[in-house]
Amino acid sequence: MRSTLCICEPATGAVEELLRTNRLIEAPNWMPDGTSLIVNGDGRMFRVSLAAAELVALDTGHAVKCNNDHGISPDGSLLAISDSTDTGQSCIWVLPAAGGTPRRITAKVPSWWHGWSPDGRTLAYVGRRDGAFGIYTIGVDGGAEQHIVSGGGHYDGPDYSPDGAWIWFNSDRGGSMDLWRIPVSGGTPEQMTDDERVNWFPHPSPDGRAVLYLSYEPGTEGHPRDRDVELRLLDPADGSVRTLLALFGGQGTINVPCWSPDARRFAFVRYGRSKD
């Protein structure tokens, strides 16, 4: 099978296989009511019920080139997608979580969604402006984007801490790809990992006790798919790191927020090797 949608319980290390498919699917989000997941595949969006696991297509209107940067609002009413149908480059749109007509949020492209503020009013995303990557925020109704941080390398994966005080992200601004965080109003970024691994996509748990992230082998360039990777947990209180799983994955495994609302589990995708 090309893709296996899985659920992990960090406390025990137990992994449940929810769905196997020959389709390339990516980037699970967990619905706030805890009953289903959202994934993307082949430019479309799908819901997967935990009770009866199958891919059920969501109506995204004209937006049929969705990438793996998408997520659900904290109240479960809205879905943010990143889609290139109209613009030729990734642009952020919002639509009803049950499906419907998308509403454009970002005027500037490319923009890749990555996080909702806990109050549901603000989106955090990656933008490339004048050739440089940076972290930006914008209101859920659109308007002017707010520049949070950029300069000196690549920036990706912004996600809010559950108290709304911090935006976590990954960047090679320090020379290698590591996890960072910055106050939501901007300021001086704080480096949160510093090792030989190539670390991407930090996702704070809803209880604030851990940050899940994707860790590549040393020397990896970018965030490719079909690599031997690890899923790790960082304790933001003391900086300690625990490796949960080693798997074949990478791009598409946990690009976006994927924790269950009770912080007891998270969803991820692993991929089959060509010889499988």
TrEMBL record:
It comes from the Bacteria. InterPro entries: 6-blade_b-propeller_TolB-like, WD40. Pfam families: PD40 (PF07676). Belongs to the TolB family. This is Uncharacterized protein. It comes from Hoeflea alexandrii.
